[in-house]
Design brief:
- The structure is a single chain.
- By secondary structure, the protein is α+β, with helices and mostly antiparallel strands.
- It folds into two domains: 46 residues; 91 residues, PH-domain like (Roll).
- It is built from five helices and nine strands.
- Strand 6 and strand 7 form a beta hairpin.
- Helix 2 runs antiparallel to helix 3.
- The longest helix is centred in the first third of the chain and has 24 residues.
């Protein structure tokens, strides 16, 4: 898939202790191209229509409204069309633009690959909901159903989209196990 970046890294426990910020996994999960193209085309049409209303038809209020709607839609697409997922020794980070989920390694119990259950979070993007009765958050791009469920020691359940969920689950489990092994 064009745009997917996966960097699996193996680090020894000695190296992990020296460098707490070591990158174990990195992935940029893009929304499906067809979806992004349709949303971008609508945004461009709104901006173009707004400019025409402003400059050609001298309808200022309608032109400004349509121009603002197109700009807002383009901004939303820019922020939520790619999910940045990083696993480092200190924890899991999943972000849409400036907003996201940061789970310290000490809070993570386990992770496993699982299909996205739309009914648990009712949508895409950053979502809060209940998965099998447990509170949690989902970080998902439109129309991608593969990802990872991360269970926390406090009983939370978080869903993170991934095009390579087995690798992401292995990296998350690795940091949770390394932390548990260091405490023994």
């Amino acid at each position: 898939m064009i745009g997917d970046t996966i960097i699996p890294v193996r680090a020894s426990k000695a190296h992990a202790e020296k460098s707490s910020g070591a990158l174990l996994y990195s992935e940029d999960v893009f929304a499906q191209r067809r979806f992004a193209i349709v949303v971008a085309a609508i945004a461009v049409a709104c901006v173009g229509g707004g400019l025409w209303l402003l400059l050609g038809a001298n309808q200022v209020s309608d032109g400004v409204g349509l121009l603002a709607a197109g700009t807002l839609l383009a901004g939303i697409l820019r922020l939520f069309a790619v999910l940045h997922v990083r696993v480092q020794n200190e924890g899991l980070h999943a972000r849409f633009g400036p907003w996201g989920l940061n789970l310290p390694a000490g809070q993570i119990d386990s992770a496993r690959a699982e299909t996205y259950r739309w009914g648990s979070y009712y949508g895409w993007g950053m979502r809060w909901g209940r998965d099998e009765g447990r509170p949690g958050r989902a970080m998902s791009v439109p129309f991608l159903r593969s990802g990872v469920i991360v269970e926390t020691k406090e009983g939370g359940r978080h869903y993170i989209n991934s095009r390579r969920p087995e690798e992401l689950a292995a990296a998350v489990n690795r940091i949770a196990e390394d932390l548990d092994g260091a405490k023994v």
